[in-house]
Amino acid sequence: MEIRVYPGRDGVFELYDDEGDGFGYEQGHYTTVRFAWYDAHRLLKIGSRQGRFPGMPLKQRLRIVCGAGDAVPIEILYTGGATTAALPDCQSSN
For residue 71, what pLDDT is reported? Predict the structure, then answer.
């Protein structure tokens, strides 16, 4: 999965995932992960996975890409716990 960060200001979003083939989400079978970008520190904080669903992957490879400029993407193996990804070269294209 690729996560794109566009620098310029702080931001947050929540990643939602579920089985993708039914109505299990109505019974709470889904996960969410909070992402927070701290622009001044060029740091992406990835929260702990909340929830679960049958067949969910326990590990997920994330490719973190700066959406502006020429910063080198980084890859992390997300295992459901809180972690951070530093993108020191992620600069606004303005």
Answer: 78
Query: The pTM is what?
Result: 0.90
Spell out a b/e string for 8-40, using b for 16 or more CB atoms within 10 Å of the CB, else e. eeeeeeebebbeeeeeeeeeebbbebebebeee
Residue 94 is assigned to a structural domain of this protein? no
The reply to whether 93 falls in a domain is no
Which residue blocks in the chain are alpha helix, DSSP H?
Answer: none
Q: Give the CATH number for residue 11.
A: 2.60.40.1180
Cα–Cα distance for residue pair 54/24, rounded to 1 Å: 9
Separation CA 57–CA 75 (nearest Å)? 17
pLDDT digits (tens, 9 = 90+) for 56-82: 999 999 999 998 777 789 999 999 999
What tokens appear for 59 in the block? 């590990």
Residue 92 is assigned to a structural domain of this protein: no
In the chain, what percentage of residues exceed pLDDT 90? 86
